[in-house]
Each structure stands twice: as C-alpha cells, then as structure tokens.
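Structure (tokenized):
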C-alpha cells in the first residue's frame, strides 16, 4: 500500500521572489522615508533621524513577524479564524473608548497605551482575509446558496466597515470590502449574484461618497484640482508638481523641493511623489515592477495552492497588497480622488508594515506547498 506523504515531506522551499521583492521595497522605503522627512523632522522635532529610526524599528519587527508566520503551516490559521475575528471587533471598538483611542486631525484611528500605538484597521485586513478564506473553503459551502456562503463574510465585513467608517476612514474600509469581494469572486460566486451585489452596492458607495462635504469636495477636486488650488486640490497639485520635474532620472536623491513643506507629510501617503521627483521615471517604474512581481508570484501561489483555503488565502493577501499599491499610486498621480491609503512596505508607518509583512509570511508558507 502506498504511504501518504507527511506535511514535512510535502514542504518545499518558499518562493524567494516574494521575499526579495518585499526586502527591496522595505529597503527602498527606509531610504526614501529618511530622504522625505529629515529636514522637516529636524526642524519640527529637533531630530533628523526620528522617522528613520521608527521606520527601521518597524521594518525589523515586521521581518520578525514575517519569519514567524512563514514558519507556521498556513492550515493552522483556519482554526484561529473565529478568534481573530472576535479580536478584530474588540480592537475596532477600543478606538472609541476615551483614554485608549487616539484622536489625530479629527480622526480616531489608533489605540495606544503609553508610547505604543496600533491601528486596528490594519489588523482588520488580516483577520477578514483569513476568516473569509476559511469560511468559504468549507466543504459544506455551496456558492450558489448566497445566504449560506457569500453573505456571512460580507456581513462581518460590513460590520467592520461601519466601525472603520466611524473613525472615519472610508478609503481603508472600501479597500477591505474590495479584497473580501475578490476572495468571494475567487471562491466561485455565480455571475448572477455578483451582478446583483454590484447593482446594490453602487448606490451605497455613491451615498457614502456624497454624504460628507469633504468627501464630495475631494471628488470634485479630483476632476479639476486647479479650481481650488489652496484647499481641496492642494495635495494633488503639489504631488503633480513633484512628479513633473523628476523626468527620466530625477533631480537626485535627497534633493526634492516638494518635501520642504509644500507636500504635507511627504514620508507617508505621498511618498511615491517624492520617489518620482528624486529618482524620476526609472525609480517610479522600479517600484511598480517590484509590486508587479509580488502580484505575479502571489497570483501563481493562489493558482497552484494545494487546497481551496490556501488558494483563497493567497488571493486575498495578494489582492490586499496590490489594491493598496494601485490606490496609492493612483492618488499620487491624480488618477483617482485623494484617500488615505499608504504605499505598502514603503510609506512611514508601524501597524501597516507589521501586519503586511505578517501576511507576506503566510503567503510564503503557502508557496512551500504549491503543486509542481
């Protein structure tokens, strides 16, 4: 009788293309965060290396998280999915508790104790990807029965979305909804159901976009940013002013003008504009190529995964990184309205880097079991 191979025997080397793409992006981000922030950081904080040290710390912690999750068989996350979902809701609710929730610029998106802060919405991405993949990969699930299949992950995603919207953070909420939608699509939702979901979702998205004055102004400023260059169109215009002079090779590393108080917080959401200005078209294309490599290898891992759970999990992780990169680059280039989505592995941040790298570790673990 032929012996069934053990899990250890089935395990191969991880896809190192994924690892090296993230390593280069993180290294790129470390250099560019310092370049974008050292002058303003020196003047505002008296420490030119403040953001560099913080970014280096979170990259180190992120790689530790990546190595940890890459060493855990991805099947174990399936059992943890309910606990992760409960923890997700607890963290999102803690944002609104006085003393725990931290309010910055009229937004309450962080929780903190002492000097430690975390953005729960970043954990939400991880929790919902794992839960949706785990639920939709059950053998008892039939995708033609909407209420017993797609409805459940959409329902928990909707609850999370409402809590994130209350922070408020519409951009992150919509990105999470889009990724869960991708997982449902990959799970095989019938086209008829998909069509009905799209039809019913459009009025809701339209209402959310137009229900607040600042969101409506962002949409109109996207259509014509020069109509209000000092207010709603300011970010887009300053971003384009950064990209324009970059040319093919850029003005030179560290020589950006737009980071000198023209582009607010250049080390965060608009860091791609500084890359385009200092490193030019070639630098910007290099970043996009690295993200394309991540998408390509992640998509291959999803297609070649040994089971449905691994396939949906890889699709969700790949989709989340890709959607965030596309939205960020789209905002910086004036292709879509301004929204607060950072550039994965590159923008200054803590929670985003850590949880994104943990997800990449899971993706690398799935790649160890792909079919030859």
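Design, position by position:
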């Amino acid at each position: 009788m032929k012996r069934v191979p053990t899990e250890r025997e089935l395990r191969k080397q991880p896809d190192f293309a994924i690892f090296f793409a993230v390593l280069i992006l993180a290294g790129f981000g470390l250099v560019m965060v310092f370049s974008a922030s050292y002058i303003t950081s020196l003047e505002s904080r008296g420490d030119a290396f403040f953001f560099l040290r913080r970014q280096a710390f979170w990259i180190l912690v992120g790689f530790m998280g990546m190595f940890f999750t890459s060493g855990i068989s991805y099947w174990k996350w399936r059992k943890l999915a309910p606990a992760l979902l409960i923890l997700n809701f607890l963290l999102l609710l803690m944002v609104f508790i006085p003393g725990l929730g931290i309010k910055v610029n009229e937004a309450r998106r962080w929780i903190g104790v002492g000097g430690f802060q975390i953005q729960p919405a970043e954990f939400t991405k991880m929790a919902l990807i794992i839960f949706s993949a785990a639920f939709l990969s059950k053998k008892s699930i039939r995708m033609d029965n909407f209420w017993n299949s797609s409805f459940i992950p959409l329902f928990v995603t909707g609850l999370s979305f409402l809590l994130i919207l209350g922070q408020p953070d519409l951009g992150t909420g919509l990105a999470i909804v889009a990724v869960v939608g991708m997982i449902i699509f990959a799970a095989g939702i019938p086209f008829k159901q998909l069509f009905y979901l799209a039809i019913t979702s459009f009025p809701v998205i339209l209402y959310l976009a137009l229900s607040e004055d600042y969101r409506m102004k962002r949409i109109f400023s996207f259509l014509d940013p020069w109509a209000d260059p000092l207010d709603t169109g300011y970010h887009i215009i300053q971003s384009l002013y950064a990209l324009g002079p970059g040319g093919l090779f850029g003005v030179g590393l560290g020589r950006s003008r737009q980071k000198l108080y023209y582009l607010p917080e250049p080390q965060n959401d608009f860091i791609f504009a500084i890359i385009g200005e200092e490193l030019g078209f070639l630098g910007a294309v290099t970043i996009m190529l690295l993200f394309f490599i991540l998408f390509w290898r992640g998509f291959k891992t999803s297609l070649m995964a040994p089971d449905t759970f691994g396939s949906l999990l890889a699709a969700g992780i790949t989709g989340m990184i890709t959607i965030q990169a596309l939205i960020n680059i789209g905002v910086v280039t004036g292709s879509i309205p301004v929204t607060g989505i950072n550039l994965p592995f590159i923008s200054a941040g803590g929670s985003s880097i850590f949880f994104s790298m943990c997800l990449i570790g899971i993706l690398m673990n799935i790649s160890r079991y792909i079919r030859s």
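Reviewer-requested clarification: The chain has one domain: 10-367. The first helix runs from residue 7 to 10.
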